[in-house]
Design brief:
163 residues, mainly alpha, 7 helices
């Protein structure tokens, strides 16, 4: 009986250490995945594309000419805020947490193993091009649907003005 109690006491005392060690191992693998995938650089590329999309807001005919003329000043100011608050380094701990909550350690092992294969390396190298082309497709679709959305918004506003 005493040996059973001793074993339970040891297990209770060492369990938090084992859980912490497992979590540290898992987080290290997530960090390795971030390094291999260069997720920080990928986010910078996406953010640059977002900046380009923000610039198109000023191409709208409803934007006054003086606002268009000084748009660079506003773009730079808005962009500085976005870069500061939405940087990978600013959000990294949150990303580690959600990856840890979502992926098991064996899944992380498999993902890391894949990224180290020729196919995984090729995918990582070509991902920026794929992302850019995908963003272009999305932007083209949004541009095509923009007038339709504008009409829907105008009709909505008119319906609610009448009430």
């Amino acid at each position: 009986m005493r040996s059973m109690l001793a074993a339970l006491a040891i297990a209770a005392l060492t369990a938090p250490v084992a859980v912490y060690a497992d979590e540290a191992s898992k987080n290290a693998k997530i960090e390795e995945m971030f390094a291999i995938t260069k997720v920080d650089r990928l986010q910078d590329q996406v953010m640059d594309q977002v900046r380009g999309a923000l610039g198109t807001m000023f191409e709208n005919p409803s934007v006054p000419a003086e606002a268009k003329a000084s748009r660079k000043e506003l773009e730079d100011e808005v962009w500085a805020i976005i870069k500061k608050r939405v940087s990978f380094e600013h959000m990294k701990s949150d990303f580690v947490r959600i990856y840890s909550e979502t992926l098991t350690e064996p899944e992380l092992d498999s993902i890391l193993a894949f990224y180290k294969t020729p196919g995984g390396i090729a995918l990582l190298e070509k991902m920026p091009v794929l992302m850019k082309k995908g963003m272009e497709i999305g932007m083209a679709q949004m541009k095509d649907v923009g007038p339709e959305i504008q009409q829907a918004v105008e009709k909505f506003v008119e319906r609610h003005k009448a009430k």
